[in-house]
Amino acid sequence: MAALEVEGLTKDYGEVLANDDVTFSVGEGEVFGYLGPNGAGKTTTIRTLMGFQSPTSGGGTVLGHDVTDEADLIAAKRRIGYLPANPAFDEGVTGREVLDLHASIKGDERRDELLETFDAPVDRKVRDYSTGNVQKLGLVQAFMHDPDLVVMDEPTAGLDPLMQRAFNDFVAAEKQRGLTVFLSSHVLSEVRRVCDRVGIIREGRLVTTERIEDLLHRTGKFVHVRVAGDVSADAFDLDGVHDVSCSTTDGGRVDDAGADDANEGTADRSATTPPDTADTDPPRVEGPVTECTFTFTGDVNELIAALADRTVLDLDVEEAPLEEVFMRFYGGQDA
Amino acid sequence: MLELARYEGRHRVRGAAAATAALGGFALLYIFIYPTFAESLGADIDQLLEAYPEALSKAFGVQSLATMEGYLASELYTFGWLLVVGIYFAYAGASLIAADVERERMDMLLSLPVSRARVVLEAFASLAVPLVALSTVVPVVVVVATEVVGYPVPAVDVAAIHLLSVPYLTTCAGIGLVASVVFDRAGIAQRVAAGALVGLFFAESIVTDTDFEAAGVVSPTRYVDPNAILRESEYALGDAAVLTVATVALVALAVALFRRKDIQ
User: Fold this and answer.
1) Domain boundaries, chain B
2) Which chain A residues contact residue B103 at CB under 8 A?
3) How many CB atoms lie within 10 A of CB B116?
4) CATH architecture of the domain with range A221-319
5) What is the pTM of this model?
């Protein structure tokens, strides 16, 4: 049995079709990432699955319970944890009081253990919480009744990198225990480590669902390289290089002037210049400098080998942003 | 059951205490100035009524100021209780659902295994805290204070007016509750509910004794008459029943609307 199923889900707000015939399912014990840019319709699907709004047509099930039947859905909610995109709690009460209320209705067998991982200051009033602490409190309430399915809307937003890693480790451990997770994100790199499979939604339509390895292989890396000399785009004629764009400038780096100013300038100027500019400066070179960007889906070793006989001034290899993925693979479909 | 009502009720204790203190103080002030007022005017006191614009005396139920009962019926109960406390409950009712929707707390609440009907009913039930506080403390203040100033009012009548105004206040809260499920912003729900109540209050007093009297039938104020209770010891139980039915109908309407609503 699928832990979560969406079948022909359509939600028409009149001026916008937020979900257009969305169909997918999430298996038991699977961690499923629901990805898409902001405004794509992720939250609409999630809020419909939680019964906060009714679909225009279609529907779905969670843990086998019909999301359009209130009584049936309530039975499922005892075993579901939920974290909204912007968790909000009563401002005038302490985190402990919030958790006590949730505990009185759905139970809290894992509260203490969770508070060790997500250490929200439960004795302080929610009013005094930072965004990160609100998110931690939200995570604790989502997991404290030891649910079988957890639905999270942008769970990593608002967490600092350290907490994000703790979150990833936590989800991985929960997955080992057999938990099913459905989470949304607009940042692929934030969730790629925890997801088994992803669904990509754009402008209300589900574009694809695929295993995360397949997606990452297809999306490739975003490469930004700066080399000495006047180099043409042909220099990067390797397997897996797409959309090369190069520009050459004379006499060193475009932003050299800025860096010099920062070194000699007043305290005020230095403060407004990124602090690492001077420290991380590559060796200054005479003559032209070429700056290239491209998407790379090949073997990174080949790229490094190709660069080996050049003077590399700077090299950035990062995961392709989700928007790039859309442009590359799905841009034409909606046009 | 009742976890939500208990939770919300606990957070109403301070507000209820403040409202009770304010109304109690208001009652004391009225009662303590009455002797000076009555003695300085003596037997001519009701001539003062002629100086009141007729619409105003009707609106505030001023029938006689010659007795403490008549004075309290108009000054304290019609104005202070039916209008001011009525607005307080309409406001409180209007904040219940709309405030949670507006502050995006409703998603979190509805993610719990609770029905929407239960969310509405328990939120409404939490208003019992200010209702009980006001309806038990203020009558004691009135009975004791009128005794102290030497113009005692029968405790039974005072108890009766408070008891019979309970369904009136729940009706006011019910009007607010309906507004709070219709509108997604608490501020709008509050203004609509309070505005509706004030409108009904004055509409009823304007149409009284006119050809449009029947139109006043929808106003909750028609069903509580402080003058009849305090001056004549007449308790209109049928009217209280009408208000009880109205409360149930308003709450049922709110539940029905909220069950169908897309939470934004």
Assistant:
1) 3-260
2) 88
3) 24
4) 2-Layer Sandwich (3.30)
5) 0.84
What is the residue-wise DSSP string for A4-21? Answer: EEEEEEEEE-SS-EEEEE
Q: Calculate how close chain A gets to B221, using CA atoms only, in Å.
A: 34
Cα-to-chain-centroid distance, residue B236: 17
What CATH number belongs to A2-219?
Answer: 3.40.50.300
Spell out the residues 6+ positions from residue B233 whose beta carbon is closer than 8 angstroms to its own. B154, B156, B157, B160
Size of interface A-B (CB pairs under 8 A): 63
Tell me which residue in A50, A82, A88 faces B103 most closely, judged by beta carbons: A88
Which residues does A9 contact at the CB level (< 8 Å), separation at least 6? Answer: A19, A21, A22, A23, A45, A48, A55, A57, A58, A59, A60
**Boundaries of every domain in chain A:** 2-219, 221-319
Integer Cα distance of A43 and B184 in angstroms: 19
Q: Cβ–Cβ of A80/B104 closer than 8 Å?
A: no
* ipTM topping 0.95: no
Give the model confidence (pLDDT) of B104-116 as tens digits.
999 999 999 999 9
Interface check for B112 against chain A (CB to CB < 8 A): the answer is: yes
User: What order of strands is seen across the sheet that includes strand A65-66?
Assistant: A17-27, A2-12, A57-62, A65-66
Token pair, residue B147, equals 């005794």
Tens of pLDDT, residue by residue over B183-230, are 999 999 999 999 999 998 888 877 777 777 777 788 898 899 998 999
Contact residues on chain B for A54, CB-CB shorter than 8 A? 262
Of B263, B260, B251, which is closest to residue B120 (Cα–Cα)? B251
Q: Is B1 an 8 Å CB contact of chain A?
A: no
Dist CA B119 CA B249 (whole Å): 17
- B chain contacts of residue A143, beta-carbon cutoff 8 Å: none
Task: Tell me the shortest Cα–Cα distance from A141 to chain B, in angstroms.
Answer: 10
